[in-house]
C-alpha cells in the first residue's frame, strides 16, 4: 500500500491513495490553516471507524443478518503532552435492521475488535480501545 502527501500551502496538504482517491488535510486558523479539510488525527480516527464498521457489516451480512444501517460514533482522548497520542478511544455502534440477533451483533463487534480490524488493533498498541453497541429495529 502506498500514499502520497503533497504540500499545498501553509499547513494544508493533499493526500492521495494509490487507488487515486484524494483528500485535503488542513490545520486550524490559529495554526496557520484555513480549515479547508480534516486534521490528520481526525482522519486517523475516521480511518479506524471505517475499518471496524466495514468488518461489522461484512460479518453480519455473512451471518445472513438483515442489517440496514451501521453507524460508529467514536470519541477519543489524547495525551496532554507532545506527542499528543490517543490514550483512550471508544467506539459506539448503532446497528439497525429488521429482526437482528443481538448476539450476532455482539459477535461481529468482538471479532472486528480482536481479530479483523487492522486499524483498531494497531491503535490499540498505544491507546485503550473500548467498544459497545446498540441494536435498533428498522421501521417497517
Structure description:
- The model has no long low-confidence stretch (mean pLDDT 97).
- β1 and β2 form a beta hairpin.
- It is elongated, with a radius of gyration of 17 Å.
- The strands form two sheets. The protein has a three-stranded antiparallel sheet, with no helix packed on it.
- By secondary structure, it is an alpha+beta fold.
- The chain is 31% helix and 36% strand.
- The longest helix is centred in the middle third of the chain and has 23 residues.
- The protein has three helices and six strands.
- It folds into two domains: 38 residues, N-terminal domain of TfIIb (Single Sheet), CATH 2.20.25; 98 residues, K homology (KH) domain (GMP Synthetase, Chain A, domain 3), CATH 3.30.300.20.
- It holds the Pfam family OsmC.
- It comes from Methylovorus glucosotrophus (strain SIP3-4).
- This is OsmC family protein.
Amino acid at each position: 500500500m502506498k500514499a502520497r502527501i503533497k504540500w499545498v500551502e501553509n499547513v494544508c496538504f493533499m493526500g492521495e491513495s494509490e487507488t487515486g482517491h484524494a483528500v485535503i488535510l488542513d490545520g486550524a486558523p490559529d495554526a496557520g490553516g484555513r480549515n479547508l479539510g480534516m486534521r490528520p488525527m481526525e482522519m486517523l480516527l475516521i480511518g479506524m471507524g471505517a475499518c471496524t464498521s466495514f468488518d461489522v457489516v461484512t460479518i453480519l451480512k455473512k451471518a445472513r443478518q438483515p442489517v440496514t444501517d451501521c453507524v460508529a460514533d467514536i470519541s477519543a482522548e489524547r495525551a496532554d503532552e507532545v506527542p499528543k497520542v490517543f490514550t483512550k478511544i471508544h467506539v459506539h455502534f448503532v446497528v439497525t435492521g429488521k429482526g437482528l440477533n443481538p448476539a450476532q451483533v455482539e459477535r461481529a463487534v468482538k471479532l472486528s475488535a480482536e481479530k479483523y480490524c487492522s486499524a483498531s488493533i494497531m491503535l490499540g498498541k498505544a491507546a485503550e480501545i473500548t467498544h459497545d453497541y446498540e441494536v435498533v429495529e428498522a421501521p417497517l
